[in-house]
Amino acid sequence: MVLTAGLSLKPQYFDAALACPAEGLWFEVHPENYMVAGGPRIAWLEAIRSKHAISLHGVALSLAADAEPDPAHLARLAALVRRVEPALVSEHLAWSAWRGAYHPDLLPFPRTSEALVRIVDNISRTQETLKRRIAIENPSHYLAIDGHERDEIDFLAEIARRTGCGLLLDVNNVYVSARNLGYSAEAYLDAFPAGLVMEIHLAGHTADPNLGAALLVDSHDAAVAPEVWALYERLIRRIGPRPTLIERDDNLPDFAALLAEREHADAVLKAPLERAA
Amino acid sequence: MHAPAPGALARFQDAFARALRAPEAAPSAELTELTAQPAFAVYRNTVMKGCIDALQANYPAVTRIVGEEWFRAAAAVYARETPPSDPTLLNYGADFADFLGRFDPAADLPYLPDVARLDRFWTEAHVAPDADRLDPATVAGLAPEALAGIVLVPHASARWAWFEDAPAYTIWSRNRGDGDPGTDMDWRPEGALVVRPRAAVEWAALDAAGCAFLDACAAGRALDEAARRALDADRQADLAAILATLLGAGAFSHARAVQDSQPAKEQP
């Protein structure tokens, strides 16, 4: 089955998700929420999996930390991958676990050659353990960091070249980062290596409560913004259709509202195919 | 976790992690330019929100009793003391009940730590390994002489406790859902059993003798010894009723002969 547009899956949506007949619909979850010994959570996920494709989108491998991924965590992820046989597995170009503490966020770092070597090693280790190719996501940026030796696209492309991994292109992250750090989102997307994109993310953002529109926060708690839809259409016109996720983690609307956004993405994905036909 | 190499990346991450934990007003001696940017607060806030959201999700009855605002303030204090070590945030806050026990602003609610223990029991039962429940008919079918020598093995999801100081189970169960928490309450000690014998977590009141009986079963004692301990806890205990209640609640996964050297599960 070809994956079209998918949705973040939250427990509130299980019944509606299970029953939804939309063609090509798939669901993405954070694997950390399903690393349980047993019980209803994993049973729910397996029930959804019997009807729809699943993507595991990790937040905790901490690939950009200057340390190997926690072997126990990686083993739990591998067990979940074996259990649900996901269509896609992805992680972030970021760090979150460090010296035994887990920071529930995706933290930045200077893109140095030292970091590149470490991340390449961590991704290779992950792909060997999971016995599959994973996709790495471009994070949202808020801080101007000194010491970057490569720009982000160059860094991501070099990681992909050395590890064989693919990329997850989050269009909202590009928009938010471009606005926060003052560069062109269009230029970034136009330069992104099309052949490496395994998945696309779309999400909502909000203005920082203190700084307003000068600082956009990748909050995943609102509908996808019109500016992000425009960037997405521009991207799909250039690279063709890719599995696209409407990502929502907070301030959850009813399932029908998410499904309407999903249909918007689905229509964009079908447009270039129609033109080619 | 493996020790990181002593490079620039590790130094950056040490300094960044320290700055995340530092109080907002304190300027960072390292990463000065980075942490001086107002946007640094986004990371600080996201990390703290992630910890507090996880605790609130894991402790719904405590939240309902104290209100969201009080809970989130208390959770922030806890999160600064005890950041998560496991990215599976369902497991976060395992010792939150102990924290509430020594948290001065909670001193007026002495039953709150036990309510937190019951919320934690619910989470542990929710994620426990799947296991069959012992069919009461299996026990009913045993001859009396065989019965005395068997060990009833508590279900992998079963958690129980006796609360000496307050009706913590009644308070917890009335605040676990959306129902009316009520005001009428018989102020007496109580026990509780929380278990997931089927798909969903279930709970029941348990008397002192029932708790003592389950403690003995968990320690690998045979039924006759478990019965003696139940009577030690309460000389008036109705053993048949206790056994029927526990079997009906799905508190056991299976029965085994006492000589089997299968390791017994200790109650945490």
Please write out the topology:
The complex is a heterodimer of chains A (277) and B (268).
Chain A: E1 5-8, H1 14-19, E2 26-29, H2 40-49, E3 53-57, H3 71-84, E4 88-92, E5 95-98, E6 101-107, H4 113-130, E7 135-137, H5 152-163, E8 166-170, H6 171-181, H7 185-191, E9 197-203, E10 206-208, E11 212-217, H8 226-239, E12 244-247, H9 255-276
Parallel strand pairs in A: 1-2, 1-12, 2-3, 3-4, 4-7, 7-8, 8-9, 9-12
Antiparallel strand pairs in A: 5-6, 10-11
Chain B: H1 8-21, H2 32-35, H3 40-58, H4 60-66, H5 68-81, H6 96-101, H7 112-127, H8 136-140, H9 144-147, E1 150-154, E2 159-163, H10 168-176, E3 190-195, E4 202-206, H11 208-218, H12 223-233, H13 239-249, E5 252-257
Antiparallel strand pairs in B: 1-5, 2-3, 3-4
Helix pairs in contact in B: 3-5, 4-5, 4-7, 4-10, 7-10, 11-12
Shape summary of chain B:
elongated
Number of structurally distinct domains of chain A: 1
Question: How many distinct domains of chain B?
Answer: 2
CATH homologous superfamily descriptor of chain A: Divalent-metal-dependent TIM barrel enzymes
Give me the secondary-structure category of chain B: mainly alpha
Radius of gyration of chain B: 23 Å
CATH A-level architecture of chain A? Alpha-Beta Barrel
Order of SSEs of chain A: EHEHEHEEEHEHEHHEEEHEH
**β-strand number of chain A:** 12
Distance between the termini of chain B: 25 Å
